[in-house]
TrEMBL record:
InterPro entries: Cell_wall_metabolism_enzyme (IPR050570), Dup_hybrid_motif (IPR011055), M23ase_b-sheet_dom (IPR016047). SUPFAM superfamilies: Duplicated hybrid motif. Residues 77-171 form the M23ase beta-sheet core domain. GO terms for molecular function: metalloendopeptidase activity. PANTHER family: MUREIN HYDROLASE ACTIVATOR ENVC (PTHR21666:SF270), PEPTIDASE-RELATED (PTHR21666). This is M23 family metallopeptidase. It comes from Bacteroides faecium. Pfam families: Peptidase_M23.
Amino acid sequence: MKNILISLTVLLLPVIIHAQNKSPFSAREIKDVRVATPGLFAKSNHLYLHLDSLQEHEYAFPLPGGKVISAYGTRGGHSGADIKTCAKDTIRAAFDGIVRMSKPYYAYGNLVVIRHPNGLETLYSHNFKNFVQSGDTVKAGQPIGLTGRTGRATTEHVHFETRINGQHFNPNLIFDMKEKTLRKGCVKCTKNGNGIVVKTHTPDNRVAQNNQIKK
Ligand SMILES: [Zn+2]
C-alpha cells in the first residue's frame, strides 16, 4: 500500500508542478502591452492606489541612482520616463507583483511588464537582458534585468512606464522622478469611457478651499 502511494506521488508530481507553474495570464495578456486588466473596474469606476500604506521594503526606484533624461509626455507624447545610469546596470522591480510579459516587443526591445496587487502595472524596456519570465512572482527591489539599448533606443537606459488597465500615465504621480522617492499619498484612477484619468487624490482639497473662501 505504502509503495503504491509513493508511486502515485512520484507519477503525479510533474502534474502538480506543471499546475503551479501555469501562468495566471491569458495569451493576449502575455503578448500585448496594452490590454485591460480583467475585473479591475468591475465594481466601481474608481480605483485608489494607496501609496501611503506601503512599507519601506514594499517599493524600490527601478534604477537606483538614475537620472531622468527624457520625462513622460515629452517628444510628442513619450509614454514613459527614460532613466539612465550606465550600460548593464541592474533594473529593479518597483513593487511586489507577478511578471505579465517578458519578451522582445517591437521598438521597446526586451521588455518586462509587472502587474501589482493593487492593479498598477509597471513596464521596463530596452533591456540588455531580462532575468524573469511571465508568471514569475517578484518582490520590490528584486533584479529583473539589465539596462541596454535593444529596440528603438539611442543610448543605454531604462524606459519606465506606469499603466492602469493597459493605459500609460505619468510615472511622476507614483514616484518623485527627480528625488527618486515614492509619492506619499493616494492616487485616484477613474474609468472614463475607454480612457482612464489618473490624478493625485487630495480628499481634503474642498475643505481647504472652503476655509480659504471664509477667510
Ligand atoms: Zn522612453
